[in-house]
Write a structure and sequence with these properties.
Elements (H helix, E strand, L loop, with lengths): L2 H26 L3 H21 L1 H5 L4 H30 L16 H8 L5 E6 L7 H14 L4 E6 L5 H6 L8 E6 L7 E4 L4 H12 L4 E6 L17 H9 L2 E6 L11 E7 L7 H12 L3 E5 L9 H5 L3 E3 L3 E3 L10 E4 L1 E2 L6 H6 L3 E4 L4 E3 L9 E8 L5 E3 L18 E9 L10 E7 L13 H14 L22 H31 L2
Parallel strand pairs: 1-2, 5-6, 5-7, 7-8, 8-18
Antiparallel strand pairs: 1-3, 3-4, 9-14, 10-16, 11-13, 12-15, 15-17, 17-18
Length: 519
């Protein structure tokens, strides 16, 4: 390449560097030193061009050469102007896309629905110094909530070191942080406090502030059911209990022994894996409870008997003997079923839309009774199926293949039943609702973090308790992998991506164009 061609390229780059130095100072890095360096380097490159192209510049007075130089300068200024305009537009109309696998920068459907359902404006006050490591993450979380519902959620940050009265009001010691979520206006507005929250905690706080009253959920005990609090070294439902409390329920244990009826304040009753028979009076109390419009979630287990067969048959549900098995749709064991075969029920509609797979270890299946045993007015529907290749294995300890006489085909793993009870003498609710799930171990603490199963259970609770807004997808337990950048690193990244890289491309293009025009 001849020296004139090289200096022509230098001249193109120099002109771009010189003209773009104010852009660097005002819009990208903000660094005076960097902008000055660009201007000096650009001027040097232009000087090299002027020295090596003196004759061309001497002929600049001619009409053709003058037009060429004028068009070159105008083209450069035009391209640079377009670049500046595009960057300004991108800065003001900043569009964001969440490409992470767990969608860690997007609000969950439950959060969006909660914000949309707020009847009074919610305000978040973060008592946290700007130097705190979680400041930026919390500000980003609040920003997403505000953008989703600008009229329903706003926020503010206060440094407790600069506002000692607020720190004293909330009894904050030096170095402590706190977030205050309030509903409505004024000092008397209902509020709740929580440590630096993730999305789930913040959404649950909004749900609790919006709730007019918590529904009491009774967990039956006395028949080997899973306990709300696990014994030392044992399994229990403490994670489920915490989830219920966060969503506005009040879980409590209940032993029906010696009782003639379920307490009148019961919003819902849960049977979580009973392993011994309920007595005749206890079954009668449950039958009366549903007959008056009660709500019941029933979770069974393989190889157990609980004496509730006839009671369930009243509502069109019959528990199959044996264990559901599937040779294809499993997690490596034919008795650990994995399913995305959903019915048309509201409980699983959000899971189906997201394409979630539900996993049930050693599940039992149900036969749905459409006539005969069931009570008048009962409607029963399948909620979750196995695949069409499944069967009911009657001897799971001896055989893992289907045998003659065993039920085969697509099995019902979760069912929901309802019955109009508006005419009941001691009516509790207008409609009785029952959800039967063929596996109770998905409720246990070690299994609770499995997102699809957790949403299946909580949606069943929402449907049974007539709370449509709680049939949704909750924020997942996200493993966030983020890269923390300092302010200097952010300026460098901004300079490279919005200044240096596009200018380099423009410089190369301009140099090529000038070379071709000059031939």
């Amino acid at each position: 390449m001849r020296a004139t061609h090289v200096t022509r390229v230098l001249g193109a780059f120099g002109l771009l560097l010189l003209l773009s130095s104010p852009f660097t100072l005002l819009l990208t890095s903000g660094s005076v030193a960097l902008a000055g360096s660009k201007a000096v380097l650009g001027a040097a490159m232009l000087a090299a061009y002027v020295v090596t192209h003196r004759r061309e510049l001497g002929r600049a007075g001619t009409r053709r050469t003058g037009r060429f130089l004028a068009s070159s300068v105008l083209t450069t200024l035009g391209v640079l102007g377009v670049l500046v305009a595009l960057n300004v537009l991108a800065f003001r109309k900043n569009q964001r896309w969440d490409l992470t696998r767990e969608r860690i920068f997007s609000l969950s459907p439950q959060t969006v629905q909660t914000l949309a359902g707020l009847k009074e404006k919610a305000h978040a006050l973060a008592l946290i110094p700007p130097t705190h490591p979680s400041y930026g993450e919390l500000e980003e979380l609040f920003r997403r909530y505000h953008e989703a519902a600008p009229e329903a959620f706003d926020y503010a940050f206060v440094d407790p070191r600069r506002e000692p009265s607020l720190a004293a009001k909330y009894q904050l010691k030096d170095g402590q942080t706190l977030v205050v979520i309030s509903r409505g206006e004024g000092d008397a507005a209902p509020h709740t406090t929580l440590p630096l929250p993730a999305e789930q905690e913040l959404t649950n706080a909004l749900l609790q502030l919006s709730a007019t009253g918590a529904q009491k959920v009774y967990f039956l005990e006395g028949h080997g059911e899973w306990p709300l609090e696990p014994p030392p070294g044992g399994d229990g439902l403490s994670e489920l209990r915490r989830q219920l409390q966060r969503e506005g329920y009040r879980p409590e244990p209940l032993n029906l022994l010696g009782r003639k009826e379920v307490p009148r304040d019961a919003g819902l009753v849960i049977i979580a894996g009973a392993k011994q028979d309920y007595t005749v009076p206890e079954v009668a109390a449950l039958r009366t409870y549903l007959g008056e419009g009660g709500r019941l979630l029933y979770f069974t287990d393989a190889n157990t008997e609980d004496g509730l067969g006839l009671f369930l048959a009243d509502y069109g549900v019959q528990v199959d003997e044996g264990v559901a098995a599937d040779p294809r749709f499993n997690s490596g064991n034919p008795f650990v079923l994995v399913s995305n075969f959903y019915g048309k029920h509201a409980i699983t509609r959000p899971l189906q839309e997201r394409g979630f797979n539900v996993q049930l270890p050693t599940a039992r299946s149900f036969t749905l009774i459409r006539e005969g045993f069931l009570l008048p007015g009962v409607t029963v529907e399948p909620v979750l199926f196995s695949s069409p290749y499944a069967w009911v294995e009657s001897r799971p300890l001896e055989d893992t293949t289907p045998s003659s006489g065993e039920k085969m085909g697509q099995l019902t793993l979760v069912a929901a039943a309802s019955r109009d009870t508006r005419a009941a003498e001691h009516k509790r609710f207008d409609e009785a609702r029952l959800v039967a799930v063929g596996e109770s171990e998905l409720l246990l603490d070690p299994n609770w973090r499995y997102e699809a199963n957790r949403n299946l259970v909580m949606n069943a609770l929402g449907w049974a308790s007539h709370q449509v807004e709680k049939i949704t997808l909750r924020p997942p337990d996200r493993e966030t992998s983020t890269l923390e950048l300092s302010e200097d690193q952010m300026r460098t990244l901004r300079f490279v991506s919005t200044d240096l890289f596009p200018l380099s491309l423009l410089g190369v293009g301009l140099a090529v164009w000038l070379s071709r025009r000059n031939r």
